[in-house]
Every structure is written in C-alpha cells, then in structure tokens.
Design goal:
Mean pLDDT: 81
Distance between the termini: 49 Å
Organism: Orientia tsutsugamushi str. Gilliam
Domain Tc1-like transposase DDE: 2-39
Strand content: under 5%
Helix content: 40-55%
Number of helices: 2
Shape: elongated
Number of strands: 0
Number of domains: 1
Keywords: Endonuclease, Hydrolase, Nuclease
GO molecular function: endonuclease activity; nucleic acid binding
InterPro entries: RNaseH_sf (IPR036397), Tc1-like_DDE_dom (IPR038717)
Order of helices and strands: HH
Low-confidence stretches: none
Length: 50
Amino acid sequence: MGCSILFLPTYSPDLNPIEHYWFKIKNEIRKVTAQFKDISIAVEHVMKFI
C-alpha cells in the first residue's frame, strides 16, 4: 500500500517545562470558572496573573 509506520518517542510531560505551566493555568481556570458566568472572562482573569 505504500504506507510506513512512524514510531514517535515516548511522551513524557514531566520532562517538558511548559506542561507544568499549562497544568497550573488549567487549575486556576477551573477554580475561577465558578465565580464567572462566562468562561472567556475567567480565562482573561487568570491570564492577568501570568
């Protein structure tokens, strides 16, 4: 068929520093979402602290 398999390296989020920041951002958004009616306002609120 002309297809080949491409094996990707194992994904390790612990070794990728940006993953730690995304984890913190997502947690903060979850916390403040209950305080705001609109998710975009919650995200805007969290982004002010980055």
